[in-house]
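Appendix B.2, paired examples.
Example (i):
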Amino acid sequence: MPDSSHTRTDRVYIDEAVIDVYRQLKKEGNAEIEDAPFETYKDLFMFAACLGYQNGRRTKPRKGAGGEVPTKVFTPDDMAILKAIAIAEAGDIDILTRFGEILSITEEYASTGIYEMKAYLIDEGGRPLWNLVNLLNENET
């Protein structure tokens, strides 16, 4: 369960209500890339957070974590993106001193973004990788 005190710094949580979506889209074993286009939960989380932010929607994760991603797997580039989302949301760079709050904000965007990913990548029918390519092409500017 996400820590409301924003003091945690070691992981982001994945809402238990969407863990099956993560499992469907993450490549495991002999799964074909067209059906499971993401290598890691971290990659899914990053895309979901960015999609949620792009669409301007945040949702607090439900109580009980279905999964978690340790922050140690985030690259410096990943962290720069998460921090940028938090700065844009807070409207203040002082948020950089509150790492737990950065995680909470991006979890909320990811909690919304993963539902949007499900709608685009799974519910549309067809193969998720090609639906992902179409989604990216639609959002080109």
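Example (ii):
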Amino acid sequence: MTKARYWRPLPDGRIECYLCPRECRLRDGQRGFCFVRAREGDSMVLTTDGRSSGFCIDPIEKKPLNHFLPGTSVLSFGTAGCNLGCQFCQNWDISKARAMDRLMDAADAAQIARTASEWDCESVAFTYNDPVIFAEYAIDVADACRERGIRTVAVSAGYVNPEGRRDLYGAMDAANIDLKAFTEEFYFRITGGAHLRPVLDALVWLKHSSDVWFEITTLLIPGHNDSDAELGAMAAWIVAELGPDVPHHFSAFHPDHRMRDVPPTPRATLRRARQIALAAGERYVYTGNVRDPEGQSTRCAVCGELLIGRDRYSVGRYRLRPDGSCPRCRTPLPGVFAAASGGFGSRRIPISITR
């Protein structure tokens, strides 16, 4: 355990964690909603610092990031706990684990950066559970990676207060933010008492106050966040507030955690959502968690040329000019691109790191 940041004393003797909008108020021995930020004595500690629920080498497309070094490998890891309580959580065995239940692997920041380098990973991703709750650890790892020329990625729900947002996301090279729905009711009822506005604020900050490349993911849950009206409102907000060039991924839900009675997302729903977003002015809209090469490939927004062909997590065709523009009409493709695809494919390689 290590001492944490983002807390302050209160007049009644409690301390308040202000990392995320829950702003948990704790007495000695108590833990926050996330369970991993705890009060010990007169300060707060991060109980998961240097501990992981596992390490795996993934394709970057699995994060999902389609406009950030396509075809490259990323060293992925998470810890335990979460500051949301989503009934549909697809990683609930990690995010709902108590602090030490799933922490089988230990590694400090330098060790993670060294391992990523040894495995020729272009980046390290903080994923599986939200890096917001282990911000101090994630920032330390990002600093160590930067020293080795390795980039870092935050896969996050964006539920974070301004200071933590600035420090955590500001340390990253890329992010994928879950925009889980576009109604306050969904956030409050389905994600455990959270609110929509802080997530929208995080997206606006990323676009207008940072240099972080970011993309958005929305997991479509039948009957809960997949109506034409909600999808249209979401797409209109994205175009108006973030611009048309932020990639947006619509992913398929599978029954899990406390929503085992909800059916899986039909492929037709993903395709409908994609068409609604494109009609609203979004230029790069993708489908995920299903096989849909057309919905997962990247075309030039101006001339329609196929630039990056994908089949789930595998990159096939990769046709960009050296400056990252379309070879036919020379329109720049927004994102971070290399001269050639990384060629990692769809492999998943679990690894172990020990001190």
